[in-house]
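Fold description:
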Amino acid sequence: MTSVPVTTIGGYLGAGKTTLVNGLLAGDHGLRIGVLVNDFGAISIDEKLIVSRDDDVVTLANGCACCSVAGDLAMALDRFAGRADRYEQIVIEASGVADPARIAALAGSPGLSHGATVVVVDAATVRARARDKFVGSLVRRQLAAADILILSKIDLADPAGLTEARAFATAQAPGARMIEVLQGRVDAGDLFSQSTPRRGRLPACTSAGSDAASALFESHYWSSDAPLDIEALRTVVAGLPDGIVRVKGIVATGTGGRVALHRAGADVSIDPLDGSPDTTGAEIVVIGRAGTLDASQLDGAFGACLLHSRTDS
């Protein structure tokens, strides 16, 4: 039986993993790719690409699929392995706080084979993240797992900073191949050409990595059935304390559209999403260092952005 190679995409929160995955899903590359992601709601797939839905699998017009992995990743991989006649490549988008080497170890299941471990690196912030006393060791461990380094956001780093980011990332993962990208655009053939990891035996997948992440971070989920005032939301998200390391959401606007909300570090972006809205409200996830999240304060701040509450006041 032909095995399906599994490529793992890792990297710290906000590095650009989701943008890279979006590009793979929408790309005109002729490959049938099965993609497993931690949070399907964060993947802004153009609605016109979606042709069918089967449980938590979305099949796209270009032959790719996206599977929302809310539970057991190994079971989800087995599900794709059972469809080896449909997919030529499987991609896992690891959580931003996961050790991608441990995730990649799951590709040893029957019907699968180890592809490269790809780590996305934010050129503008990687050195500061790696020095951070809370998350620095995690960032360096992620980099060390790379067979391929994707240097992202190269337009946001000055020339000197870009040179330093290249040197730093290469030093953390000696021998890894580096690809520099803008807006997550990468040639799929180039990304998948490395069919086997450059290292020997991969580490066993244990709960140690997830336990360490749980000790470092905590998250909070907020949702509403009503649209939000987008400018008020921007102000709220920009004003969140430094302990908040990531905000991600899909939000309905008062004009009938929807936007993707992102905050990585101190940078906030709110971008329109194409296609017909599949929600009339909002879903927002906030990730912060352990002990920094005040759930009631977050609920109150987001609630104050509800359009109906502002109209009623």
